[in-house]
Design brief:
Layout lengths: L17 H10 L8 H13 L11 H12 L6 H7 L5 E2 L2 E2 L5 H8 L6 E2 L2 E2 L1 H4 L6 H12 L6 H17 L4 E6 L9 H13 L4 H22 L2 E6 L1 E2 L4 H7 L7 E2 L9 H7 L7 E3 L7 H11 L3 E3 L9 H15 L17 H21 L5 H19 L3
Helix pairs in contact: 2-15, 7-8, 9-10, 13-14, 14-15, 15-16
Amino acid sequence: MEEIGVPTLDGTPVEEDHEKIWRLFAERFHLYAGTPSGAWLRYELEEVFGIEKRLDASTAMEIYECISSKLRSPEFLPRALFDRFNIEVLATTDDASSNLEHHRRIMESDWDGKVIPSFRPDAVVDILADAWKGEIDKLSDASGIDVVSYKTFVSAIENRREYFKSMGAVATDQGILSPYAKQLGPSEVDAVFQRALRGSATEEDGRLFTAHMLMEMARMSVDDGFVMQIHPGALRNHNRFVFERFGLDKGCDIPVATEYTENMRELLNKYGNETDLTIILFTLDESTYSRELAPLAGHYPALKLGPAWWFNDSLEGMARFRRMVTETAGFYNTVGFNDDTRALLSIPARHDLSRRMDANFLAGLLARHVIDKDEALELAYQLANGLVRKAYNL
């Protein structure tokens, strides 16, 4: 990672020559063959930059200069690309204490592109994280509420949700290891919160507090209308060496087995029949698609299935998702496709791949006379646009 310029936590020097890093990347580009990253990158080079030559050691610098030149042109400014890609809505993911200053600047500008925030409370919900107490201080400052108890914590969360809604947000998002949901009593949850403030919370405290906050977030969504997104099943920072040398979010996150039927039973029994609530559930555990998730989404009005996510956001992963959930959940209990890229230029590539996969799946159903052509055409639209627009109230 030092060879491609990833900064180290201890300040050890890393490669800073961008051309050298690019050459190394080009020499290794063949390693991406057959992967979704390879498909997206090829699409970007060909369709976005108009580069027809294959990237390798012999073409590295020619392609580098072409990309550099185009990125300096007005046509490749972010807002120009936003319009070129025909993006209707782009949603960011923002910490609960964020002041959303960049969103405010966009709202006050004369640009008509729609960029909205999403409420991400993970940093203030994970009471076992080293930085949790500092995040609570930020929450206090942002909300104007001194968070000294669980009651004031909830008030601060509700305050921030209201602010996010005023800035255009339509959804919350929680990344959790397990979808376990459980309602704790007032005294029990406050005792957990007080132990966390003192720095003495246990692993079980952390598990129960996250489970309780899933229930609370569902309650709040019933009240304020936010769509509730849940992303379970990623064990973060699996590689201890990389984590200690390079820090958070350096790619060492691994899927783990997850269970939904029992873990979400209390939440779904309390809120799953709410017709005004939408819970969008993503998973990394493909083994649950047909066994648990499709039956749950097929039954509970509030529950919808998010698209194949992260490790499964690929041609074969998408195909497996459709094959395993459609017979039980149907198409209309899913939400079409939304990408979670960090790279603006990959947005059209990822949507193109998804739409081609969905069209291929629909064509297979049509060829086997499972659906008619007019149904296939309508579903193609719904999977590309209609379902996601409806699910997120856009």
